[in-house]
Specification:
The chain is mainly α. It is built from 20 helices and 11 strands. The strands form 5 sheets. Strands 3-4-7 form a 3-stranded antiparallel sheet. The chain has a two-stranded parallel sheet with strand order 1-2. It has a two-stranded antiparallel sheet with strand order 5-6.
Length: about 500
C-alpha cells in the first residue's frame, strides 16, 4: 500500500456544495492513482453551525458518486475517531504545548473588547501590534496570569505569529507562495468551550492520521501559512499542499454559490436537501435527472484536463489519468450546458432496462417494463436528463395533449385527406405491425399514388405524436401498436382539421 493518505474533511453545516464534491473527487482520484488511502473526516468542531442530517447527506452523496471512503465514520480505520467532536481531548494538550513553548498564548478578551479594538481602527486585526493592548497572557504579570487560570474563567488560545517573517509554501498547483507574518493575525486555535478551531484541529488530525497530501479549495490558501508555522512549532513534518481553483458562476464572474441554483435554474448540490422548510429546500443533480458518472466526468474537467482530446472518462479512467500537475490555477466556469451534454452521453450508454427503472415512478403503471425499456431506447438520444424521457416523450405514454399548430399550418393540405383515410385502412390490415411493415406499407402507398414524402409523413407524425420532434415515426408506431396508432391517426386528423379551421376563421 502506498504512503499516500488524503482526506476529504467537510463540515456538517448544511448540504454538500458541488464544489465540495469536486474536492472529494480530486482527493479520491489522487489517492487511487497512487494506490493510497481516501479518508472521510467530519470537521464538526463548530457546534453552533452544526446541522442535523448534514453528515448523513455527505455520506449519501459520496456513495451515490461511487467515491467510497477507505476510512471514516461508519467505514472503519485505524486512526479514528473520524469526527472531530469525538476527538476533543486530542487538541487542548497541543495548544497548551505551544503556549509553553512561547508560540501561543491565553486570551480573555470579551466580544466587546474585540469590537472596541475594531472601532478604533477598522483595519485592525489581533496581531503583534494590537495584542499588547488586549487582555491576554502576554500583557498580564505572572501572578495575574496564574490567578486567571486558577479562577476557571474561560479563555481562548491564540497563535503567536512571529514578527516580520516570510513563510514560503510550495503548492503543487500554484508553485511557491509566500506570506509575511506582518500581514497575518494571531488566530484563535482553541475556543472557550475547549473545542479547537479549524486551524488547530486540521493540523493535529492531519499529523495523527498521517495525511501526506492536503488537497482543498483555494479559500484556505491564506490560512496555510499559519498551518505551516504550527507544524514547525510542533516539530512535525507538514503534508504537501494543493489548493484548487474556484468554481465560478455560469457567467464566469464570481464564485458559484447556493443562491445561483435558483437564479440560473440549475443544481448546485449533488442531492436534494430538505431540512423541512421551503426556504432551505434545494434540489440536486440526482433530482434534476443526472447520472452520477456523468456528473463526476463533468466535475473532473472543472479545473483539470488530461492533456488529450478525450472527454468521456469512466471513474477508473479518471483514476488512471489523474495528475495534480494538470490542475489549472484559474477559476473554472460552471458550464451547465456542458454538464447536460455529458449527461446525454451517459444516458445514451445506459441500458434501456436501467433507464426504464429510473422513470418507472414517473409514468402510469399501465406500461410494463418491456414497453418502458423500448420507449427509453427510442428517446435516449433525444434527451439531456432522465426526467426528459417521460416529459419530452410524453406522447409515448398517452395521446398527445397538444399539437404543433405552426407545423400543422405549414404541412397540412386538405387535398390529401383521402390519402390519410386510405392509409389508416392500409395500416389496419397489416398482419405484422412493426417498423419494417409500417414503413413498407406507407412508403409503398406514397409511391403508388405518386405523392411526395413531405406531403404525407410529417402529417402522419403530427397526428400520431402532436410534434415533429421525436424518434423515428415507424419505430414509434411499432411501440405504440396497431390499435393505438389507428386511434391516434383518427383523433389526430380531427384535431389537425380543427386547428386549420381556427386559423382560417
Amino acid at each position: 500500500m502506498s504512503d499516500v493518505r488524503v482526506r476529504f474533511a467537510p463540515s456538517p453545516t448544511g448540504p454538500l456544495h458541488i464544489g465540495g464534491v469536486r474536492t472529494a473527487l480530486y482527493n479520491y482520484l489522487f489517492a487511487k492513482h497512487a494506490g493510497g488511502t481516501f479518508i472521510l473526516r467530519v470537521e464538526d468542531t463548530d457546534q453552533n453551525r452544526y446541522v442535523p442530517g448534514a453528515e448523513d447527506y455527505i455520506v449519501e452523496a459520496l456513495n451515490w458518486f461511487g467515491l467510497t471512503p477507505d476510512e471514516g465514520p461508519g467505514f472503519g480505520g485505524d486512526y479514528g475517531p473520524y469526527r472531530q467532536s469525538e476527538r476533543k481531548d486530542f487538541y487542548a494538550k497541543y495548544a497548551i504545548q505551544m503556549v509553553e513553548q512561547g508560540n501561543a498564548y491565553y486570551a480573555w478578551d470579551t466580544p466587546a473588547d474585540l469590537d472596541l479594538m475594531r472601532t478604533q481602527d477598522v483595519n485592525a486585526k489581533y496581531d503583534a501590534k494590537t495584542r499588547v493592548k488586549m487582555k491576554n497572557g502576554l500583557t498580564l504579570s505572572a501572578d495575574e496570569l496564574k490567578l486567571k487560570l486558577e479562577s476557571g474563567v474561560k479563555y481562548v488560545i491564540r497563535l503567536k505569529m512571529p514578527a516580520n517573517e516570510d513563510v514560503m509554501i510550495t503548492d503543487l498547483v500554484r508553485g511557491e507562495v509566500t506570506f509575511n507574518t506582518q500581514d497575518l493575525d494571531d488566530k484563535v486555535i482553541l475556543k472557550g468551550d475547549g473545542m479547537p478551531t479549524y486551524h488547530l484541529a486540521n493540523i493535529v488530525d492531519d499529523h495523527l492520521m498521517k495525511i501526506s497530501h492536503v488537497i482543498r479549495g483555494e479559500e484556505w490558501l491564506s490560512s496555510t501559512a499559519h498551518h505551516v508555522l504550527m507544524y514547525r512549532f510542533m516539530g512535525w513534518e507538514a503534508p504537501q499542499f494543493s489548493h484548487l481553483p474556484l468554481i465560478l458562476k455560469p457567467t464566469g464572474k464570481g464564485k458559484l454559490s447556493k443562491r445561483d441554483g435558483a437564479k440560473f435554474g440549475l443544481p448546485v448540490f449533488p442531492l436534494e436537501w430538505n431540512p423541512g422548510n421551503e426556504e432551505e429546500l434545494y434540489s440536486g443533480f440526482r433530482e434534476f435527472g443526472f447520472l452520477p458518472d456523468a456528473v463526476i466526468n463533468f466535475l473532473a474537467f472543472l479545473g483539470w484536463n488530461p492533456g488529450t482530446e478525450q472527454e468521456i472518462f469512466s471513474l477508473d479512467e479518471l483514476v488512471n489519468s489523474f495528475s495534480i500537475k494538470r490542475i489549472v490555477k484559474s477559476g473554472a466556469r460552471f458550464d451547465y450546458d456542458k454538464a447536460k451534454w455529458y449527461n446525454q452521453q451517459y444516458i445514451i450508454k445506459t441500458a434501456n432496462e436501467v433507464l426504464a427503472a429510473m422513470i418507472r415512478s414517473e409514468v402510469s403503471a399501465d406500461y410494463n417494463d418491456e414497453y418502458l425499456a423500448k420507449a427509453c431506447g427510442l428517446m435516449k438520444e433525444r434527451v439531456e436528463t432522465i426526467g426528459d424521457i417521460p416529459k419530452v416523450g410524453d406522447f409515448l405514454f398517452g395521446s398527445p395533449s397538444e399539437y404543433d399548430a405552426k407545423m400543422i399550418r405549414k404541412k397540412y393540405k386538405e387535398d390529401n385527406d383521402p390519402h390519410f383515410i386510405a392509409l389508416t385502412g392500409t395500416l389496419g390490415t397489416l398482419e405484422i405491425f412493426d417498423a419494417e411493415s409500417t414503413q413498407s406499407a406507407i412508403k409503398g402507398y406514397i409511391g403508388d399514388n405518386e405523392l411526395s414524402f413531405g406531403a404525407i409523413l410529417p402529417v402522419l407524425r403530427l397526428a400520431t405524436s402532436g410534434t415533429m420532434k421525436g424518434p423515428d415515426l415507424f419505430e414509434m408506431m411499432e411501440l405504440l401498436g396497431r390499435d393505438e396508432v389507428l386511434v391516434r391517426m383518427r383523433d389526430g386528423l380531427n384535431e389537425i382539421k380543427k386547428i386549420i379551421s381556427a386559423a382560417q376563421a
